[in-house]
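User: I'm writing a tutorial on reading structure tokens. Could you give me a worked example: one chain, its sequence, then its tokens, then a sentence or two explaining what the tokens reveal?
Assistant: Sure. Here is the example chain.
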Amino acid sequence: MASGNDMKAAKETYGSFIALLKWSVPVIAIGVLIIVLLIAS
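And here are its predicted structure tokens:
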């Protein structure tokens, strides 16, 4: 079983990952939308 310190580090890593995901998904979606609009025109 993981010790308390390992769980704290894991929670911090997971929190950082989720924060990065919150920003990267919309940025990627906007980029894809722009590319699709350029190809369609």
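What the tokens reveal: The chain has one helix and no strands. The chain has one domain: 1-41.
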